[in-house]
Amino acid sequence: MSLWGRYKTSQDGAVAVEASLITTIMVVLTLAAFEIVYGFFQWNAAQQAVRLGARLAATSPPVSQALETLTGLENGGEAGDPMPDYTHSCAGASASCSAGGFNAAVLNEIVFGPDNDGLCAATSRARRGMCDIFERVSPENVTIEYRNSGLGRAGVPAWPAPLITVTLTDVEFDFALLRYFTPNAIRKMPPVSVTVIAEDMQSGR
Asked: How many Å separate Cα 55 from the centre of its chain?
């Protein structure tokens, strides 16, 4: 048999080639599984951070400064009447609210914790802010909406008792490898929101 014939029929190295192909596939699948699990971990951390942010927002002065001066008597209402409908949305990205001034110090307390140390790291429960649970949260990622819950009463001072919705947006999953192979729409985490009722925004201060 000629040299070319022996080359075409030779099975030498077939096992090594097959093993390398299977190993490559297994490594890729293992890394992909790890990335997916890590993505779920980040998603859970983001949810926990937003829950904490909503609780802090409910026990802090409002980020919307207009809500602090809202009495419910502005349009001829009387003390004790239900609060009129209102919605104040405050975005950290634009440092502004849809009504009135923006209290950046309060938002920073919600993000960094009651100590407002500007750090995102493990700390005691009483000092935790959103980024102490999920360190990739910044004020620019947080939107807080205050809207009428139907429970508040007009007066001087008023008792607004708003529904408070804290939303985390524009945060990307921190993938090690998938970031290079997936489009931006997949890398970006869906918005995470939590809503609570603020019975008294001054409690816990």
From this structure: 14
Question: What CA–CA distances, in Å, run from 113 to 30, 49, 54, 92, 199?
Answer: 37, 11, 12, 16, 21
The reported pLDDT for the residue numbered 122 is: 83
* Nearest residue to 71 (alpha-carbon basis) of 161, 146, 150, 154: 154
Measured CA to CA, the distance from residue 172 to residue 40 in angstroms comes to 12
CB atoms near residue 194 (< 10 Å): 19
Where exactly are the structural domains of the chain?
3-197
H or E segment and range at residue 4: helix 3-9
What's the pTM? 0.80
Question: Which band of pLDDT confidence, cut at 50, 70 and 90, is reported for residue 91?
Answer: very high
Q: How far apart are CA 91 and CA 89, in angstroms?
A: 7
Structure tokens at 82: 């239900």
Strand order in the sheet with 87-91: 96-97, 87-91, 142-147, 163-168, 192-197
Q: Is the pLDDT of residue 134 over 50?
A: yes
Mind listing the pLDDT tens digit for each residue in 137-148? 999 999 999 999
For residue 199, pLDDT over 80 is answered with no
